[in-house]
Write a structure and sequence with these properties.
3 copies of one chain form a homotrimer.
Chain A: E1 2-8, H1 16-27, E2 31-37, H2 45-55, E3 64-68, E4 79-83, E5 88-92, H3 98-103, E6 107-111, H4 122-136, E7 143-146, E8 159-160, E9 164-172, E10 178-183, H5 184-190, E11 196-200, E12 203-206, E13 208-209, E14 220-224, E15 229-234, H6 239-243, E16 250-255
Parallel strand pairs in A: 1-2, 1-3, 3-5, 13-14
Antiparallel strand pairs in A: 4-5, 4-6, 6-7, 8-9, 9-10, 9-16, 10-15, 11-12, 11-16, 14-15
Chain lengths: ~260, ~260, ~260
């Protein structure tokens, strides 16, 4: 049994994702292919990195995770395989694996099957065959040298002061929830049993909630979400629309 | 072989659906996971219930159907398993299983694996592991008490008079077809060989057609669709746009 | 092992695609079902034909490709199976298989399992069961007569002169790339080592590029894409938006 997951910005109306699946099944007919999403915003490497971080740990040991958000295809960036204790990752060396590389010991190899590759579609011509072959065995003949400094995005870190913390919105999900880079762990450590005020886009939120349902309808509220991160949400609505918020917007918390 | 279907409002650009798939494959690596859709309109329990009703019977005996449209996650509503003669259903007790519960004998159990669950994502932390475990065996240790009165939506019923019937639009599909709650069976019984006039949003439709192709282009027409329901359609167009119709709009039929 | 691919215009929010999958798994529980896309623009037979051409060759021998873009469902057109050396194709005889039929020797059979079919959903009632049964064996009992003249779309061909070639945009992909019917092979033969000027929607492009990354940001540029076709692209942007181009627009190349 081998699981191969696919996460791309190829959209849902072309042949691109299907071509990758055909190549994979041609090499490993027993692969279980999992569509993560093909709707990463076009060329949005940071979004792909964040989304990957939300699912890869849930998969069984040995899963091969393919991520193709690849504006630099055919150019200077490496085709890459990242090997961690439990998983393999296949995709461009452009930052899509940033969270993996920050969180876990990993070895990065250059991929060496470019010979017959098109210049514009390494998903089909490099990453899909590499993933399928590596799902069968750790095949050294398709690996090149070790990449010592794989590209890691310069991800914003929250800034802590004695009275609070300032972070930012790092992802807006399908529901319009604003997911921040402030962890529940950090708040649990620094602000336990304290009274919180949360400031975002001119709005002030008082205290934390446990569930979406607890939040007053139409009013933005804060909770620790399933990523373990501080999230601003609107109960059955969109915090993003309600607050006019975007990725990168500042979120400030004061406690006392 | 075990089939697990997934129907959610999680959208197509986040990690949520993939996280569920990873959890399932970690527990039952041989599961065949079927994406039904992750594009149910957000929090639209009635839409999920209608869509589920359109596919669950098509699946083999033993299929586990997971439905997660769950605005009340982490709150008072139960996590639930519904067992019918041929299928299992896993999801929140909030009405998503209304059609199943109306159509078939069923036993509903509370799910008991909340201990380590996040407050905001029972799809990943409760429903996915429950579905995977139940796809392997009917595991009583994860079941709590029987839910005697599972939540069933108050679904509108058509009103029959001597001269006709009044129903309503219960679903608008991807093509803009207006699907009503008036069954072909009812019309076959009450209006056989009669001349029908159909009134919707100020328009009058004369008689029924058999296929979309028979309908005059751009003119709304009525037929019995693949659900066995009266449907208002526009041949290669959108009845919804053409008529400005929405879910809940009245459809009146007179016969003579 | 049998692979069945699904390409439809059913959208992503209804039960239609899932109903097909359920029917398939009921007949062939070991089928590997691959979602190609369910987001072909509604009723757009030419788009389905183009997309199919982009993936079918990538799949293993024996794959059954189901395509359902079928505005004429229930009408005069045939339900059809196309058999080529390596693949089977199941769908309506309305042109969706045009590229296959132009490129490969093929035998077309009428499908004969209409008896219990709804008039509006042959995807579920004819094509899914036919694909599942044919994925198990070449079952003659569900085949009718041979279709001698299957429908092939009148696809535009580029017009070559001594100084250049005029083609047109045949597909616009998810990234807004303009894919034309001018092949890299044709340019390699006729215009090798020549200086090219490319004219589209009032813009003039000078020469060809190898990769998207080489193109100047925001300026449309031309390259040979992964289909082997001339493509007009904008690096990390949309050529379609930038140029206001649509399918069918002329692309003229002059060389010297």
């Amino acid at each position: 049994m081998s699981v191969i997951t696919l996460c791309t910005d190829f959209g849902l109306s072309d042949s691109y994702a299907a071509a990758m699946k055909g190549v994979i099944l041609g090499i490993n007919p027993r692969a279980t292919i999992v569509d993560v999403t093909h709707a990463i915003p076009q060329h949005d490497i940071a979004a792909a990195a964040f989304v990957l971080n939300g699912y890869y740990r849930q998969f069984p040991k040995g899963t091969v995770h393919v991520v193709v958000v690849d504006p630099g295809v055919g150019g200077q960036r490496y085709d890459m395989v990242v090997k961690t204790k439990d998983h393999l990752f296949v995709g461009p060396d452009n930052g899509v694996f940033s969270f993996v590389l920050m969180h876990e010991p990993a070895v990065c190899h250059e991929l060496k099957i470019r010979r017959t590759a098109s210049a514009t579609f390494h998903g089909r011509d490099v990453f899909a065959p590499a993933a399928a072959r590596l799902s069968l065995k750790w095949e050294k003949s398709i690996l090149g040298g070790i990449i010592r400094r794989p590209r890691v995005l310069d991800l914003p870190k929250p800034i802590v002061s004695s009275r609070g913390v300032t972070g930012q919105v790092v992802h807006i999900d399908h529901f319009g929830n604003l997911i921040t880079n402030i962890t529940g762990h950090l708040l649990g450590t620094l602000a336990k049993n304290k009274t919180l005020e949360i400031f975002i886009k001119g709005a002030t939120l008082h205290g934390m909630h446990d569930t979406y349902e607890q939040c007053r309808t139409a009013a933005p509220c804060a909770l620790i979400d399933s990523f373990g991160l501080l999230e601003i949400a609107v109960n059955t609505g969109s915090a993003s629309k309600e607050l006019g918020a975007r990725r990168g917007d500042a979120v400030k918390i004061l406690w006392k």
